[in-house]
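To start, an entry.
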Amino acid sequence: MNPFRYGPHLLLSGYTLVGIFTVPAQTGPGEKLASITGIVTNQVSREGLRKAYLRLAPERPKPGSAYAAVTDGHGAFTIDNIAPGNYQLSAEHIGFLDAQYGGASNNSGVVLRLAAGDKLNGIEIKLVPQAVLSGTVLDSDGDPWQHGYVILFRSWGNGRRKMESSQSSGVDDQGGFRMAGLEPGRYYVVAESQPYFEDQYHPDVNGKPTPRHQPTWYPSAPDIDSALPITVGAGQQLSGIDIRLRTGLGSKFSIRGRASGISGVARPQNVVRISR
């Protein structure tokens, strides 16, 4: 028998029938079980979120020890028949950032310590609506450029700026891009032309470089110092983030250096960090 199989459990709450799905609890004979009731809400509007998915996972995961639930039309949920132990409760919903109870979006939450027979009520998980950025990559003439991609950087700190790559995206046949799942904050966007395209259609001549599309920061800046930052709030959807690619020489470049004082650390993959 698969220990992760979910079995249906129906709970009549007021006049609303709530579908709850739990993993069979691993308990001993005569052991009392715990329960949790609460609500998942939109942090901005304070409204309950229908069909939010919750997962109650033990602090130290083991097969057959997780529980799950789906909220009703008012955002309410119940998880019962929980074996005593230490758990973390998380929630997710389309269009919102995942969150754990007692923690900010994408951060660790508090540990729920459930003893035999505990009935934990009034739990609320507030989900932050995701922000979205969308726009178009244009060539140097202002026409849509489909041979490109964009990289989004999150800006941190006051005074000394720190940057961390957030996500990247290709563009569609009209040069359009869309980046979703963003936390409120300050961002910078850079667009680049696909290297293989530039190599094929703007090859070097007699060892000398020819003009190519250069990495360009929003809206049409050669570097981050002259780029325009984009600030988004919770749930904000900003469109019209159009980046007009610059052309020039010197598209082939590299940065070399050495990290000292680090040992026994694996090389990170697909992570870029810039500090100034």
In short: The two ends are 56 Å apart (CA to CA). The chain has two domains: 7-127, 131-248. The chain has one helix and 22 strands.
